[in-house]
Amino acid sequence: MTQGASVIDGKAFAEDLRARIAVAAAQFEVHAGRKAGLAVVLVGEDPASQVYVRSKGKQTVECGMNSFEHKLDENTDEGALLDLVERLNADPAVDGILVQLPLPAHINEQEVISAISPDKDVDGFHIINSGRLSVGLPGFVPCTPLGCLMLLKDKLGSLCGLDAVVIGRSNIVGKPMAALLLAESCTVTIAHSRTKDLPDVVRRADIIVAAVGRAEMVKGDWIKPGATVIDVGINRLPPSETSPKGKLVGDVDYASAVQVAGAITPVPGGVGPMTIAVLLRNTLVAAHRNAGVAFDESTL
Ligand SMILES: NC(=O)C1=CN([C@@H]2O[C@H](COP(=O)(O)OP(=O)(O)OC[C@H]3O[C@@H](n4cnc5c(N)ncnc54)[C@H](OP(=O)(O)O)[C@@H]3O)[C@@H](O)[C@H]2O)C=CC1
Ligand SMILES: Nc1nc(=O)c2c([nH]1)NC[C@@H]1CN(c3ccc(C(=O)N[C@@H](CCC(=O)O)C(=O)O)cc3)C=[N+]21
């Protein structure tokens, strides 16, 4: 079998970014007289979320920042969670606040996100920050789409004039991804579950970002030869004899796509590690802004 595509190594890119963050975090500590700090709030016992929260905490500390983890019981009521968010908003040691999603069904996610100070909203989910992104003002950009954009620009240089198709229109991935690609002067199409003839729509694209949550949905014969494919999906297949814990796959059928694409991100080791590295980047940016310490954000 011939392999056409070059593999985009998100894990290595993220390691490099974290190394630069660590240098800048040490400089911040000298200037501000304190470390930058990230607070992560987890409600409930979802095992996948626990894994992410643990690796975020570890990488935060490795980059020379403080990690404050708040684990609340599954049955915590919305009022108690809002009280915690208020305390974190007021805490000068906390620069960034991340409330792990999804929240239990009895809690209104939008209420909780709106309660986070926009200046500490390192996830970029607050409507103030999504509004800033949509009109082109500086704010915080959601970590996963910003990580995807960094990989695309590293691979392709200018994206100006390229046809981009984003599959998925969620507020945390699809919509902000489309806004970022538009700001780079791509011609952007947003596809979703009601899109007609999805394979034909995808075939037009020079850039494909798949953020669907359907294991291996995008097939190689949907892809224009040479296109760049960014696979955001994180799907765990049922356990099998070869993978007792269940194999992790993306939204793209990697085996067929790698034959046709020009470049492609793997799962794992593609977009996922970038999400966490960008979270740390956003936290350090927040720290400088909140402490009034000058910083050239374009260096990260
Ligand atoms: N690597 C990382 O760091 C991250 C990975 N993820 C992963 O990315 C994926 C997407 O996440 P998220 O955006 O939160 O998911 P959502 O479930 O919020 O959104 C999924 C989107 O895909 C669309 N969709 C669903 N089925 C189809 C279909 N058959 N054809 C076309 N479009 C379809 C939906 O359309 P409609 O709006 O019409 O329902 C929706 O817009 C998941 O696998 C998630 O685990 C998420 C965040 C971070
Ligand atoms: N408020 C909030 N912000 C988020 O950014 C957020 C969230 N809630 N809820 C869940 C999703 C998902 N997410 C991932 C982060 C890292 C990997 C990651 O590092 N993945 C590794 C593999 C990890 C593994 O092996 O399980 C990889 O792709 O190589 C994946 C997914 C952030 N999310």
Describe the structure in your own words.
The chain is an alpha/beta fold and 300 residues long. It folds into two domains: 88 residues, Leucine Dehydrogenase, chain A, domain 1 (Rossmann fold, 3-Layer(aba) Sandwich); 131 residues, Rossmann fold. 42% of the residues lie in helices and 15% in strands. The chain has a six-stranded parallel sheet, sandwiched between helices. 42% of the residues are buried. Bound molecules: NADPH dihydro-nicotinamide-adenine-dinucleotide phosphate and 5,10-Methenyltetrahydrofolate (GUE). The site of NADPH dihydro-nicotinamide-adenine-dinucleotide phosphate has 26 residues, from helix 10. It comes from Novosphingobium aquae. This is Bifunctional protein FolD.
Fill in the keyword field for this structure.
one-carbon metabolism; binds NADPH dihydro-nicotinamide-adenine-dinucleotide phosphate; 6-stranded parallel sheet; binds 5,10-Methenyltetrahydrofolate; Rossmann fold; 300 residues; globular; alpha/beta; 3-stranded parallel sheet; THF_DH/CycHdrlase_cat_dom; 2 domains; amino-acid biosynthesis; methylenetetrahydrofolate dehydrogenase (NADP+) activity; multifunctional enzyme
